[in-house]
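[agent] plan:
  1. take the single chain provided in the ticket
  2. run structure prediction with default settings
  3. attach structure tokens to the ticket
  4. add a short note for the reviewer (M.T.)
[agent] executing step 1
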Amino acid sequence: MEISEETVSKIQKFVQNRQAAEKEASQEPFSATALHAYARRLDGTLQQLQEQVRRQADELKKLRESRGSHGLSDNYDDPWMRVSQARRAKKAYDSLVMNEDDLPTTDSVLPSLIATEETSQLINEGKMSILVTADKLSADRERFRIEEANLRDSRAISSGLRDRIQRIRNANTRKQEQTPSQVAREVVREQKKKNKGLDHASDGLKKSLDKFIDESLAPMLAAEDLGGPTVGDALEVSDATLKAGYTAHGKPKKQKEPVEQEDGKQQRIDQFLRPSNDGSNPRNKREAAATEAHELLDALLEAGTSYIDLKRDSAASRFLVRAKVAQFHPRDARRLRLIDFGRSLGD
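[agent] step 2 finished; step 3 output follows
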């Protein structure tokens, strides 16, 4: 069966209109209001179709009920009447058979177009489903990792608590088996061990503090005492700069003589022959500042929370106040004491 030119043109026009509609929809996505209005129109169309189906069902029911009056009569007395009815029925069936169907023929391209449209729609829905599933899978994996980490933490905490409970039980059992004198000796031994560890840690901290003062803090303290930058503004201050001094504006003075290169071996011999940490005879301003800082810290540590009298307003005292380590007396700036950090622990 050949397809007419008119049918082909209609199909081509339908395809073009559909492509244009898809392009317009991809360029300008529908807003929420337009989608809502489109859904309302679809609901109205569906209601109209359902109403039409209901009316046709009612008409079909009425037609079936009235079929007895229009069907073949069961009256066998008049044969010509039966022949007339048979002829009318045959004519009606022939007219129905001769009518052409509204369905497309087997060689029509309309079923292919409909199948293509349905397939395209299914592919798009599949792609959207894949994207949604991928996002959900990523979120589920992230949640799974978090839950695994929480489970590991919970197991570690549970294990630690069980070990702690077991140690406490063992200690209680051991104490119950010991006499009061044995318990007292064990407590004293543990306290001595703790005191020894604290003393060792204190010595290490004191050595680290002395090293920091000698290597890093002393040059900056000497520079501030000479009218130079405040401690922390200039991290590297050489002995030559300290020897030259600073101007009234806090700038380093120009060195009149070239700086002599110190011999490392000679310096090491001097350190053996003439120790520089005794504080009795400092060789330069850096060592003098370091000695003053050591003496101030030692005096504050020995005084505890009591005030000490300052010989002068030095850069070391000002630095300790700025660092929130010490504080001046509210009414006398010549007195200084350490801030009582451990008051709450001691109470």
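[agent] step 4 note for reviewer: Residues 259-266, 273-279 have pLDDT under 50 and may be disordered.
[agent] ticket updated
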